[in-house]
Amino acid sequence: MNSRLTRRHFIKGVIYSSAAATSGAGFYLANAASNRQPGAVERLIAINVNGRTRRVDVQPQETLAHTLRNRLNLTGTKVSCNRGECGSCTVLIDDTAIYSCSILTQQVKGKEITTVEGLRAADGSLHPVQQAFIEELSPQCGFCTPGQVMSAVALLRANPNPTREQARLGLSGNLCRCGAYDHYLNGVMRAAELIS
Questions:
Q1: Which of 58, 74, 178, 194 could potentially form a cystine with 140 if both were Cys, beta carbons 3.0 to 4.6 Å apart?
Q2: Domain of 105: which CATH number?
Q3: For 96, what's the count of Cα atoms within 13 Å in the CB-facing half-sphere?
């Protein structure tokens, strides 16, 4: 018998070891759920993002912003300060604007999460807020824009016909490095007209 390792034997070995590792991982994950200690945090969870249920493996201390950007590749959610001050990571959780850097992914199980990517209509058209922001030339550098959009959408869902002062209050949790606040307010007021 020839003990030399051939290319064919090597490839077969890789395939067999991959299959064994995969089946072992499935066995491990199936048993991990049943053997979990009381109070332990589940790692493989299902979350509803933009109308789709997504299964993701998350760390117990992982923020929703990290999960959205790094595990689900939804990079429209920006992370700037990463401590709940700037609003660039704002998403909707059950139609409420929330800083995704300040909430753990484990806390959103069973809730509906909407990111800026989820606002587009099925035919590809933009949400009225996005369209109004374009028409009003609201974005400057654009880094805060996804958070501004999500805050404006939450505001208009709660109050479809806000005053300018109500719109200012609705966007007050979003910092704009470029100081384009009035442009964003103009966009919210235009979006309110488009929606009504």
A1: 178
A2: 3.10.20.30
A3: 7
